[in-house]
Amino acid sequence: MNLKRTLENIENQFEMFQILNEEGEIVNEDFMPDLSDEDLKEIMRRMVYTRILDQRSIALNRQGRLGFYAPTAGQEASQLGSQFALEKEDFILPGYRDVPQLIWHGLPLYQAFLFSRGHHKGNQMPEGVNAVSPQIIIGAQITQTAGVGLGYKKRGENAVAITYTGDGGASQGDFYEGINFAGAFGAQAIFVVQNNRFAISVPVEKQSAAQTIAQKAVAAGIEGIQVDGMDVLAVYAATKDARERAVNGEGPTLIETLTYRYGPHTMAGDDPTRYRTEDEDNEWEKKDPIVRFRKFLEAKGLWSEEEENELIEKTKEEIKAAVKEADNTPKQTVTDLIGIMHEELPSNLKEQMEEYKEKESK
Amino acid sequence: MAQMTMIQAITDAMRTELKNDENVLVFGEDVGQNGGVFRATEGLQKEFGEDRVFDTPLAESGIGGMSIGLALTGFRPVPEIQFFGFVYEVMDAISGQMARYRYRSGGTRPMPITVRSPFGGGVHTPELHADSLEGLMAQQPGLRVVIPSNPYDAKGLLISSIRNNDPVIFLEHMKLYRSFREEVPEEEYTVDLDKAAVKREGTDVTLVAYGAMVHSSLKAAEELEKDGISAEVIDLRTVSPVDYETILESVKKTNRAVVVQEAQKQAGIAANVVSEIQEKAILHLEAPVLRVAAPDTVYAFTQAEEVWLPNHNTIVEKVNDVMNF
């Protein structure tokens, strides 16, 4: 008997998967995904757009013009590389930082702003957009993803459910229940853990004795992979592969992306200098997903400074227009809220509806 | 017509809806092969196949979350929580999630889930099996809480619940599962949600109850009759939302009321009913509205159970207090 045996080789087994290194060089040619030049440029456009959106959202929040906001800078490759591997019919169950994936899946930007402001219209996915609003409870979406993935399997759909959480989320009971249910039922599901190293302030080392989050897949009997979450090609390739296997009946996958959020946890007063060093910030900024992808595209002659500047200006205009549209949406009323709790109003709410109609008509 | 126990009527309701709608799925711990620990799903897997009636891993939060995911893909899940005392394990999935999904989708996504679960005292179960936790559920906006007191209502209410596009917590009192049989139509029928039933007409006092306490109230009414007190008995059937119209109509006639619940006294359904009566009918009252409830302790399993649980005697005592006020 050798009790040490269990974990002996675990780090090698879950060695980080990378295609594009920090210098923008392909280091894993065998796994280079089959993407057209136009696809590659589209991925870059989405990452730049999302970085600008993050900067503008932070500014809008500081001006009091946005509600709840969780910054995304640093995580673009994890968020958008995985989303780019999806098809329209795939179902996204996001965490609260995963608004960019919703936008690229079809949620209009002005609605994302309304979500941030707590307006119910921000939660209405347009027809054909398979997604739910960002989840606030850490990990609650993971068991639901097992259910959507099982539903797709039962219906014989050529589609997957994909969910996102963070390194802290991988400590929740719902994480273990969700991946275990998905494995037991062969759900068509992908579980993405964006390991950005901090659950608000608590470092990942304090979350678990597990050397990787990816290895947690083993206990659920499903596939797991650790990916360089700053490498958009690696995230894309891993998600694409997980998707194919899921729809082919080969079971769900857990993907851990190693990433970093440059900003605070949310805009509600978190101060990262209390728990992170400047050195660590600098070290991760060297791995930046946009910087390395830009180098890669420039070497291929697919990207230029002018193109990027043009894109940035266009993005800023789009954001401005979306803010305006959100501003022009009539404010959320209590009457609206009462009306969307049930299909048919129960008697208690009928009475309260009358009361608030009267109040809000004044 | 057939003679059925309440559990048979519940099985029959699920069979009816499994037949009617291919989107209905029945699942939970021991629900498939074993037919449920109380045999509520007896024979259903055999009849409808493992794809539609199935066992789940032993994890209540997983069952709740998976139900939501299935509802998001158009199914009508009927999960079982093996005993309602285990609901704490699935509180977020129920109260934080399924109850809020219609709201959280801006009113666009239905959540047609019926969570079935046995509860209730008097059958000598271990800790955290018998507790009456309907008050916890009733506090959550977006949920309906249904508690049948007899086989006929159980079938009709369960069919209505499964067909409803909002989540329903359907609580089945264990003591009533096999305590008596009654005529239940074999064909399908529904009993309206959110509607109370007058189980016995009376003129002197209104007894409001639900679940097993309906039977204790009816027994109390019989005893009171011997003393010349005519009690009207109302079975709430849906405890959230409460059908106050039926209660108020009765109280305006009898001018007295006692509200009975098996749950602990604090913050329960009975407190809600009392408040509403005094808000809407205080000038009709000849006496304060009293409550019959269990003491504010954890459930007294199993030696002190008989004293802890309210019964027809405690109801008669409270009615006498109200009559002699």
From TrEMBL, chain A:
EC supergroup of this enzyme: oxidoreductase
InterPro entries noted in UniProt: Alpha-ketoacid_DH_E1_comp, DH_E1, PdhA/BkdA, THDP-binding
GO BP term, example: branched-chain amino acid catabolic process
EC numbers for this chain: 1.2.4.1
Keyword terms, alphabetized: Oxidoreductase, Pyruvate, Thiamine pyrophosphate
GO molecular function terms listed in the Swiss-Prot or TrEMBL record: pyruvate dehydrogenase (acetyl-transferring) activity
Catalysed reaction, written as an equation: N(6)-[(R)-lipoyl]-L-lysyl-[protein] + pyruvate + H(+) = N(6)-[(R)-S(8)-acetyldihydrolipoyl]-L-lysyl-[protein] + CO2
Cofactor(s) listed: thiamine diphosphate
Domain Dehydrogenase E1 component: from-to ranges: 44-334
CDD domains for this protein: TPP_E1_PDC_ADC_BCADC
Protein's job: The pyruvate dehydrogenase complex catalyzes the overall conversion of pyruvate to acetyl-CoA and CO(2). It contains multiple copies of three enzymatic components: pyruvate dehydrogenase (E1), dihydrolipoamide acetyltransferase (E2) and lipoamide dehydrogenase (E3).
Subunit structure, as described in the record: Heterodimer of an alpha and a beta chain.
Name of the featured protein: Pyruvate dehydrogenase E1 component subunit alpha
Originating organism: Halobacillus aidingensis
Source organism phylogeny: Bacteria, Bacillati, Bacillota, Bacilli, Bacillales
UniProtKB/TrEMBL annotation, chain B:
Superkingdom of origin organism: Bacteria
Every Transketolase-like pyrimidine-binding domain range: 4-179
An example Gene Ontology molecular-function term: oxidoreductase activity
Pfam families: Transket_pyr, Transketolase_C
Cofactor: thiamine diphosphate
CDD domains to which the protein is assigned, alphabetical: TPP_PYR_E1-PDHc-beta_like
InterPro entries per the UniProt record, alphabetical: THDP-binding, Transketo_C/PFOR_II, Transketolase-like_Pyr-bd, Transketolase_C
Record keywords, A-Z: Oxidoreductase, Pyruvate, Thiamine pyrophosphate
Keyword Oxidoreductase in record: yes
Alphabetized PANTHER family for the sequence: PYRUVATE DEHYDROGENASE E1 COMPONENT BETA SUBUNIT, PYRUVATE DEHYDROGENASE E1 COMPONENT SUBUNIT BETA
Protein's UniProt name: Pyruvate dehydrogenase E1 component subunit beta
